[in-house]
Amino acid sequence: MHTIWKGSISFGLVNVPVKMHAATESQEFQFNYLHKACNHRIRSIKKCPVCDREVDAADLVKGYEYEKDRYVVLSDEDLASLEQPMSRSIDILDFIDLKEIDPIYYQKSYYLSPEETAQKAYRLLCQAMEESGKVAVARVTMRSKQYLACLRVFEQALVMETMHYPKEIRHMDTVGERVVPTEVELTMARQLIDNLAHPFEPEKYHDELHEQMAQLIESRVAGEIFEMEAPTKGRKVVDLMEALRASIVLTEKEKGELELDEASDEGKGVQDEVKKAPTESIETGLDQPSKEKPKSTLIPRKRTTKRAKGA
């Protein structure tokens, strides 16, 4: 796994040297702009509108616009001077319960692996955090930016989630007119939630648009025509109670079919009889699932970027 940062975890007087690795990766398909006439890739050109000439990367500087069309220029040396002596340290500030952090604060996940000399200290921290049920709130500086972070144990290893600061979180002033649902509506809504409640199984969720894009690309490469099936839609349900009632009936039916699928061989005969029996079609605002197509094996190409050494 590629190392993107090196430093140490610091809490109390304990120091654990670690390496940082990206824990997630984008699976988006990257497209290039081509010249329509010849299908050759268009080159992005950095050009100064005042000097009317192309500018090389070496001639670029960073500037902050403090007024309209007025900038203050900051050199690499200026930015480097802000780096603190402990900028290579993940400083743990507090240990708290994970449920206290709302997911809106999370940005990106990184794996933290121990240096060879820190195996025992790393394992000690992991086990102590697991047994205490706590996660760590920390501060870390990467690429001239200071982040708030959360350290937690995932698959027997430490994961660091960079976080937004409170002032970066936008707050909704109002959520429309204050409406109080009836007790009947609440009861039906809770029943619908119960019918749709399942243990979290991340493997069963997949990006349908990504798979369709892969199928489209594969068919074009093979010179074939790709036809996308339009989703089957039911009638619009305007009344809230009608929508809740229809949704509950639909989920109860699906729940019953699932229980029959999981039944023993003795119960399979009953399942066949149930499937043969006529059932009333329920029209709701929910799309009906279509027949699943074979999944594409096409994987998006990774773009290689030059990273600064010692990032």
From TrEMBL:
Residues 300-311 have a biased composition (Basic residues). Residues 52-180 form the Ku domain. Keywords: DNA damage, DNA recombination, DNA repair, DNA-binding. Residues 257-311 are annotated as: Disordered. Residues 265-278 have a biased composition (Basic and acidic residues). GO terms for biological process: DNA recombination; double-strand break repair via nonhomologous end joining. GO terms for molecular function: double-stranded DNA binding. InterPro entries: DNA_bd_Ku70/Ku80, Prok_Ku, SPOC-like_C_dom_sf. It holds the Pfam family Ku. The keyword DNA-binding applies. The keyword Endoplasmic reticulum does not apply. Homodimer. Interacts with LigD. Belongs to the prokaryotic Ku family. With LigD forms a non-homologous end joining (NHEJ) DNA repair enzyme, which repairs dsDNA breaks with reduced fidelity. Binds linear dsDNA with 5'- and 3'- overhangs but not closed circular dsDNA nor ssDNA. Recruits and stimulates the ligase activity of LigD. PANTHER family: NON-HOMOLOGOUS END JOINING PROTEIN KU. This is Non-homologous end joining protein Ku. It comes from Candidatus Desulfosporosinus infrequens.
